[in-house]
Amino acid sequence: MKTLVNLVPPAPSDLAAAHYAGRLAFETDCADVHAGLMQPERDFVLLDVRSPELYARGHLPGAVNLPHGRSARRRWRRSRRRRCSSPTAPGRTATARPRRR
Fold it and tell me: Region (Disordered): which ranges (predicted)?
């Protein structure tokens, strides 16, 4: 019996490379965030979407705590601030998108 991992056959290398290159046109990853944090000036806001309790235990320097939730997301969208990035806890995903004008 095949495991769930092997139910979908691997994609050919050229298709896989094109897929991930396309995703990077719309998303950022932890390497991008790390590189941005190393710059003398930041052009993005680093969001920590975990609970205030987890944020208080430790967070990346300069991170802003904005607990995950609909009202928090609406409040952030209304603020029309800079580009944001949200590193994620295991099992969660996030995307950094340019603000809408």
Answer: 61-101
Give the separation between CA 92 and CA 42, rounded to whole angstroms: 24
Give me the number of domains the chain comprises.
1
The boundaries of the domain holding residue 16 are 12-85
Q: Which residues, including other chains, have CB under 8 Å from residue 37's CB and lie 6 or more apart?
A: 46, 60, 61, 62
Structure tokens, 75: 């409040």
Residue-level length of the chain: 101
Tell me what percent of the residues of the chain surpass a pLDDT of 90: 20
pLDDT class for 97, splitting at 50, 70, 90?
very low
Domain presence at residue 99:
no
Q: Which of 58, 55, 85 is nearest to 67 (CA)?
A: 55
